Write the structure tokens for this entry.
Amino acid sequence: MADENEFFRPIRDFYQRSVVSCTADDDLVDIVARMRERSISCVVVVSDGRPSAILTDRDLRNKVVATGRPPSTLRVADVMSAPLHTIAEDDVLYEALYRMSRHNIHRLVVVDAAGALAGIITVTDILRVQAHSPHQLVLDIEKADSLDALRELHGRIQKLIVHLAGTGIAIREMVRLIANLNDQVLIRLIELLRAERYPDLTPDFAFVVMGSEGRGEQTLSTDQDNAIIYADSLSAAEVARLEAFSQELIDALISIGVPPCPGGIMAKNPQWRRSLAAWRQELTRWLSTPTPENVMTGSMFMDLRPIYGRTDLVEALRDHAFHYMSQEQGFLVRMAQNMTRFAPPLGWFGRIKVEKSGPHRGEVDLKKAGIFAITDGIKALAIEAARLEGSTHDRMEALVECGVMRPDQFADLRAAFDFLVIMRLQGQVAALRANATPSNYVALDRLNAMEQGELRLALEGVEKFQSFIQHHFKLQLLRN
């Protein structure tokens, strides 16, 4: 799998360092002459040493005539494209692929650690790495024209992850890859349904994902957690049409191999498909009445991430939650308290406790043992600090930046979290290879002595983090 690993190498190993630059005030005809002399298709526009825009041959074809002015009177600023899409030298190659696909562009400007122009990377550079790759999967997803095609692609994603699981790729990059590919499948499915069955569907809605999918932390055992938020201005007919669309969409997702949520947290169900005003009301009910059920539901909902549609609806709902919890912390405190109830399975002298009976006898539930406590504890801190964007890794880094966590705390907790997620993914891959159903469990006797030692250290790290949460939120003052 060395070829697949290429996509997790840094951009610095692939980008073109020879790049022509200019300023926005340069005469357009002079820059076009330079492009022709060097047989290049783009020039990077710089301002104060930093890239700010780009001039491409497409800009010349589409914009010069559109200005209605003689080319000799034009400056670069009159036809250049901005804002500019950039990527850092240390970002991985797959991240470049994902951004190109997401923004429908063919090149990215590469910047160094100081934000200065370093070079450029194009889709052609990526294609040279390997034809059969995550990049090829993205291209095939974009071209998929049926449910059958998406079903086959979903299976290919699973096979790719199985192949990559033992290659030493950082778990953060692995789960990001899974999330990105699954996002692409979902977006393509929505596009197909709208084109073929719902061309009249209102654009005034957002399809969102939540839980681990919302955080971009999926592994092979992730089921659906999604919802729809729609504008308050929709007519009854538009709402009815959106309802029909949501039911077909979720059924189609299930048909291509994405498991349904056992708890029914899917946009096809009315309680997970509401107007913005109705969602505000429901969210307020959860936050103002922090029963155990409302805490679990509300916590999962706070991971919401837009996949398709109007992102402003999602931001409005998140802002509502932040505003409420900045004035009333009862929900947040109960959420923190809930994560401390999931005690790591450690007995006397650090002995790891396993299930004593049942189908998982001799196994450890890694989600309950520590993954949940870390993700929800970090989430509670991130909500309090209004730094909820991104994955658990992203939130940890943000909490260090704003002084909530010390760098050494972050390093220890990240190591514990990564190990637990790696163990879970490896267990899921092993289950698939044995034609079994992937789960959150790992058999203790299948871990060698070193892995058992690392697991013990990870669980001890979870215990320390729970103590930190108890102190931070003053949980000792709560009455149960």
